[in-house]
Specification:
It holds the Pfam family NosD. It comes from Streptomyces nigrescens. Keywords: Repeat, Signal. This is Periplasmic copper-binding protein NosD beta helix domain-containing protein. The protein is mainly beta. It is built from 4 helices and 31 strands. The strands form 2 sheets. The chain has a 20-stranded parallel β-sheet that branches.
């Protein structure tokens, strides 16, 4: 028995030595020979390394870590630049935290791509991309997120999260914090006890969140202190408690939130009971703007939200200023657009133009607050009867996701080159979505 154990250990050490030396499979699929200077290899799990963490630790910049189907009980930290971490099957490669670890994947190096896998059952985040050491340490703030105290703002530069399923995580499914120049795309987030997708503390962000599905979360998408080339486009935010929020919060740096584009999204039916309770009691709201400024909300379809389609309000001390609501379609909401300022802090210069809507609070906002408005123009306020949020369920009990679309040619395509700065969408080319946007891949329907 001891001899057998020694032979197994020797074989494992031989495999790991081979990968480090570069004799593992390369771009041409070969499995022999040393790594030529500048060459990139594919490290396969478990064929070349027994765990994902082992494979990532062996990877050089430009390498691909390709993970075979299986359930992996580990927290993976990617600290080498320009590594691609990809599952061979999105639904069958599962990183499961078993509620025993804060994060499924933590990215702290630039140019990393995370693709085609599932992360679930983490006490904090499914995927965390960050330049903050305190965020990596995993100390959540008072209401979700991270309060980094006196830590200087340090950005992680460039990232990609693509074709990832993040479900049943205790804070956020996919979380980009103190990170810039990135893309979150073609991903699915559910069961986020705070939000499914979150972008925080980046200015200018140069971040694109596109073509994702977020459902069965407390909030579908949340952007806090996130602005400056910040685009949230073409997403399906349906069947959460709140669809989308963009807000300013003293818990994070780089106040205030400003200058984001929210365009071409389907934001509907956000009063799903079988979801985690939202910390501030939000319920039945499509879009919430809380102290955010100079944002553009363009050609979104906002439907069937029982409280309100779009709400503008202020934090205790930060006014929402200069938000533009343009060419959106509102149908079947409790109130289509509502402005409410319960404290002395009021909004200014917020305006509407070209929207298909029926009800506003105060009344006739489409006429009295028509764009453009001077920045100092005070925003009127009103009240309406808001529904009471019902009790929620633990994030661990949220319904399991259906199979989601696969990354094309996951096992035959080489590593992904993440650009230093992503190509930003042109707002004029973003269409109003149909009500059936991404319906074939989602659990919650809009009607």
């Amino acid at each position: 028995m001891p001899r057998l154990r020694l032979r197994v250990m020797a074989a494992l050490l031989s495999t790991l030595t081979c990968v480090v030396a570069g004799c593992g499979p390369g771009d041409d699929g070969s499995s022999h020979g040393r790594r030529p200077p500048g060459a990139h290899v594919t490290i396969r799990v478990p064929a070349d390394a027994p765990t994902i963490s082992d494979a990532v630790s062996l990877a050089h910049p430009g390498d691909l870590v390709l993970v075979a189907p299986g359930v992996y009980h580990e927290s993976v930290k990617v600290s080498t630049p320009r590594v691609t971490l990809r599952g061979a099957s999105r639904d069958k490669v599962v990183i499961d935290g078993r509620l025993q670890q804060p994060n499924g994947i933590v990215v702290t190096a630039p140019g990393v791509a995370v693709e085609n896998l599932t992360v679930r059952n983490n006490t904090q985040n499914g995927v965390l991309v960050t330049g903050s050491a305190k965020a990596v340490a995993g100390l959540p703030g008072r209401s979700g997120g991270y309060d980094t105290g006196d830590e200087p703002v340090t950005f992680l530069k460039s990232f990609l999260v693509s074709y990832v399923t993040a479900t049943r995580n205790g804070l956020y499914g996919i979380y980009a914090f103190s990170a810039q120049n990135g893309v979150i795309e073609h991903s699915y987030a559910s069961g986020g006890a705070d939000s499914g997708i979150y972008v925080g503390q980046c200015k200018p962000c140069h971040i694109v969140v596109r073509n994702n599905i977020a459902e069965l979360n407390a909030i579908g998408y949340e952007g806090t202190n996130a602005g400056g080339d910040m685009y949230v486009v073409g997403n399906r935010l349906v069947g959460n408690r709140v669809g989308l929020t963009t807000d300013s919060d003293h818990q994070e740096k780089l106040l205030p939130q400003q200058d984001a584009v929210i365009a071409g999204n389907l934001i509907a039916a956000n009063q799903q009971r079988a979801t985690p309770e939202q910390a501030d009691g939000g319920w039945g709201t499509g879009i919430g703007i809380d102290g955010g400024s100079d944002n553009q909300f363009v050609r979104n379809r906002i439907a069937g939200n029982s409280n309100a389609g779009l709400v503008i309000t202020a934090t205790a001390d930060m006014s929402p200023v200069g938000n533009q609501i343009v060419d959106n379609t509102f149908t079947g909401n409790g109130v289509d657009v509502g402005w409410a300022f319960p404290t002395a802090t009021r909004g200014r210069g917020n305006c509407l133009r070209g929207n298909d809507l029926r009800t506003t609070v105060p009344a006739r906002l489409a006429t009295t607050a028509s764009c453009p408005l001077p920045a100092r123009s005070p925003s009127p306020a009103g009240r309406w009867k808001m529904p009471t949020a019902p009790g929620g369920i633990p994030f661990t009990e949220v319904a399991a996701p259906r199979p989601q679309p696969q990354f094309p040619h996951a096992t035959t395509t080489g590593a992904t080159a993440v650009p230093a700065v992503p190509v930003l969408p042109k707002t004029a080319g973003i269409p109003l979505p149909s009500a059936s946007l991404l319906a074939a891949n989602a659990r919650v329907q809009t009607s």
